[in-house]
Amino acid sequence: MIAMVDCNSFYASCEQVFRPDLWGKPVVVLSNNDGCVIAANKEAKEMAHIPMFEPMFKIKDQLIKNKVTFFSSNYTLYGEMSQRVMNILETFSPDVEVYSIDEAFIDVSGIKHVSLKAYGTVIKDKIVTYTGIPVGVGIAPTKVLAKLANKISKKVAKFDHVCVIDTDEKRIKALKWAQTKDVWGLGKKHQTRLKNIGVFTAYEFTQLPLSWVRKEMTVVGERLWRELRGESCIEFRTMPKTKKAIGTAKSFGKKLEDLERIEEACAYYISEVAEVLRAQKSCATYIQVFVTTSHFSDNDKQHSDSCIVTLPVPTNNTFVLTQQARKALQRIYKPGYRYKKVGVNVTGLMPQEYVQGNLFENLKLHDKRLMNVIDQLNHKFGKATVGSALVGTRVEEWELVKKDRSKRYTTQWRELLELKNK
Amino acid sequence: MEYLKTGKIKREEPHHEAAISKQTGFPSPATHYLEPSIDLNKELTQHKDATFYVRVSGNAWSQFSMRHKDVLIIDRALIPKVGNLVLVVQEGSFKVIRIPVTSSGGSFVVWGIITYIIHCTS
């Protein structure tokens, strides 16, 4: 049996733990750069009908009118709180698959001495007691069913955030309750296709002949079909997958025209990406750089372009990557535009020990040690303490605006929660 | 091209390091008595994942020996017992109480048990 544990509106919950004045009140969290709403709690969803991923400037008045509190995203806090939740889950099962910042699958097959409903309740209670984060728990024989059970646990009040599907009867009841959109991994396109042939619920989907599913929805659909019928086919993964591509692209705090400033931002992102590459011991074969202007702005001329460079030798060296990215950037940058964003992606990742040299390039063995030292320094003294000079020192001139970011209560001694007694 | 030069392959210097004392003269009499230094994280916190630190602002809680800028260690995993100092939430704001509650001040929600007060003397 697999339990899916999912934190309720995680980002908003993290903020509310430290803000009891906001308990039971609508809270939303904005994306990096305060661009759009990326998370809203139940109260916010109910009262304000906030469309997710809507640009902030379009709905700001609506939020203020409805007395919704909004926060800039505080990923430092969310990451730390997530770690606490995952640590607690490890006390319940040796096999925890951290699926995302706020969800995990845990293998509870070995639990025989108590009912799964009771076990799920213990998990839920422990997490909220320890961290203040409310969670929902769904337990079922397969991942897709566990995910569905989780959804039901939150939507159907009588389950009180713990739902177990352990008999065929309960499974069929759950499938009949679920619309196709409630099935994990069933995309919009497939939902529409199913609707067109008169399939609305998950149950109806599982009654389709397998041959049809396989033909129309490929192996992905087949897997869902089997999982919903109680046949486990999505494996349990306790080790994190090595990434196939790593990228970052964040909007600037203000629009930039100047190539120099954009180069600095680009170099900064490269150093972030290269760090991730080294952490997973991979090297990149290709590097893609792109720039774009804001398509929300009607007054500005629009330009966006991207460029992919093949590296002479796959690498994870910050300096080589920075150099190559800079060349690429110079090729796509056109003066006279107000840029909103620069982004980098590295792809063609391979384990660093498989990298083949090139007849015309030196394999710089010392570089690895230099990178090690840089990583150690940055780990010890804080992000971006040392790095490429191209990054410059004017980060605050282009970095994201985090106007309404809460304190980093759990990681910074100077930003502890303050108790004011009135 | 210095790395590609052919010739004698330089052997890596062997480096054996003793795990204990680096003294070269008289052996340390403490050798068999070494223990790790005191770690406050271990001593003052029982439940790492349930522990939070908060800072007191103002002197309104001096009856609990809490002064301005003191840092409280809070353990959310503990169950409140008689005699405990507890951080609670009442009507949307934080309050400190001692259990049992003497005054009938209405209902509250326990946020966590205050296990230590860190007070800076200077």
Task: Note the topology.
The complex is a heterodimer of chains A (422) and B (122).
Chain A: E1 2-7, H1 10-17, E2 27-30, E3 37-40, H2 42-48, H3 56-65, E4 69-72, H4 75-90, E5 96-100, E6 103-107, H5 116-131, E7 135-140, H6 143-155, E8 162-164, H7 168-177, H8 188-196, H9 202-206, H10 210-228, E9 246-256, H11 259-279, E10 282-293, E11 304-315, H12 318-332, E12 339-347, E13 350-351, H13 365-381, H14 395-398, E14 417-420
Parallel strand pairs in A: 2-4, 7-8
Antiparallel strand pairs in A: 1-6, 1-7, 2-3, 5-6, 9-12, 10-11, 10-12, 10-13
Chain B: H1 40-44, E1 51-57, E2 71-75, E3 85-90, E4 93-98, E5 109-118
Antiparallel strand pairs in B: 1-2, 2-5, 3-4, 3-5
Task: Name some characteristics of this structure.
heterodimer; A: 422 residues; alpha+beta; DNA polymerase, domain 1; Dna Ligase, domain 1; 3 domains; 5-stranded antiparallel sheet; globular; B: 122 residues; mainly beta; Umud Fragment, subunit A; 1 helix; 28% strand
Describe what this molecule looks like in 3D.
The complex is a heterodimer of chains A (422) and B (122). Chain A is globular, with a radius of gyration of 24 Å. By secondary structure, chain A is α+β, with helices and mostly antiparallel strands. Chain A has helices at 10-17, 42-48, 56-65, 75-90, 116-131, 143-155, 168-177, 188-196, 202-206, 210-228, 259-279, 318-332, 365-381, 395-398; strands at residues 2-7, 27-30, 37-40, 69-72, 96-100, 103-107, 135-140, 162-164, 246-256, 282-293, 304-315, 339-347, 350-351, 417-420. A five-stranded mixed sheet of chain A has the order 5-6-1-7-8. In chain A, strands 9, 10, 11, 12 and 13 form a five-stranded antiparallel sheet that branches. Chain A has a three-stranded mixed sheet with strand order 3-2-4, with helices on both faces. Chain A folds into three domains: 1-164, Reverse transcriptase/Diguanylate cyclase domain (Alpha-Beta Plaits, 2-Layer Sandwich), CATH 3.30.70; 167-241, 5' to 3' exonuclease, C-terminal subdomain (DNA polymerase, domain 1, Orthogonal Bundle); 246-391, DNA polymerase, Y-family, little finger domain (Dna Ligase, domain 1), CATH 3.30.1490. The model of chain A has no long low-confidence stretch (mean pLDDT 88). Helices cover 40% and strands 21% of the residues of chain A. In chain A, a hairpin with a 6-residue loop joins strand 2 and strand 3. In chain A, helix 4 runs antiparallel to helix 5 and helix 11 runs antiparallel to helix 12. Chain B has a domain at 39-118: Umud Fragment, subunit A. Chain B has a five-stranded antiparallel sheet with strand order 1-2-5-3-4, with no helix packed on it. In chain B, strand 3 and strand 4 form a beta hairpin. Chain B is elongated, with a radius of gyration of 27 Å. The N and C termini of chain B lie far apart (59 Å). With 122 residues, chain B is mostly beta strands. Chain A binds chain B through residues 20-23, 84, 87-88, 129-132, 362-366, 409-410, 413, 416-422, and chain B through 1, 3-4, 47-50, 52-58, 60-61, 71-72, 76-77, 87, 89, 92-96, 109, 111.
